[in-house]
Each structure stands twice: as structure tokens, then as C-alpha cells.
Write a structure and sequence with these properties.
- By secondary structure, this protein is an all-alpha fold.
- Helices cover 76% and strands 0% of the residues.
- It contains three helices and no strands.
- It has helices at residues 2-42, 47-67, 74-78.
- The longest helix is centred in the first third of the chain and has 41 residues, at 2-42.
- The mean pLDDT is 83.
């Protein structure tokens, strides 16, 4: 009985965290939309499109590695610089 209560509480907390994260991402996307529009208008050399393509390739290789059983470190997941990891 106690494990069922712990499982329900853990599931609720995980769902609440995912909901807050989703709302945060949506609000950030809305707030950053004007800046992204200006950046895309000023991107003459196509650097942003190349960076997006590189990020997509990196994410695909990460997902493929995850399916093959390799794990990424926990510190990489919680690092404040994790969004900059695709930069060289």
C-alpha cells in the first residue's frame, strides 16, 4: 500500500514538473519571438540555418546513441550550459 502511494506521488510530481517545464518553454518562445525574427532577418550568410542543421544532426546522433543503450551523464542534463553543447 505504501509503495502505491509513493508511486502515485512520484508520478504526480513528475507530471507537474513536465507541465511547468512546458509552460516555461512556451512563454520563453513567445518572449523570444521578436528577437528571433530580427536575427533571421539579419542572417545574410545563413549561419543560423547551418547552426540549426548542426543541432538537428547532434540531437539525432544523441537519440540514436540513447536507443543503442549508451547513456549521457547526469551532469550534462542539469548543466546550465547544456544548450551550448552543440557549439564548437
Amino acid at each position: 500500500m505504501q509503495t502505491l502511494a509513493v508511486d502515485i506521488a512520484t508520478t504526480f510530481i513528475d507530471d507537474a514538473a513536465a507541465l511547468v517545464t512546458g509552460f516555461g518553454k512556451a512563454l520563453l518562445r513567445i518572449a523570444m519571438a521578436p528577437i528571433n525574427r530580427i536575427a533571421n532577418a539579419c542572417d545574410v550568410a545563413g549561419v543560423l540555418a547551418e547552426r540549426r542543421a548542426t543541432f538537428r544532426m547532434w540531437r539525432a546522433s544523441r537519440d540514436r546513441a540513447r536507443l543503442e543503450g549508451r547513456r549521457f551523464s547526469v551532469l550534462g542534463r542539469f548543466s546550465p550550459f547544456r544548450h551550448l553543447s552543440h557549439l564548437t
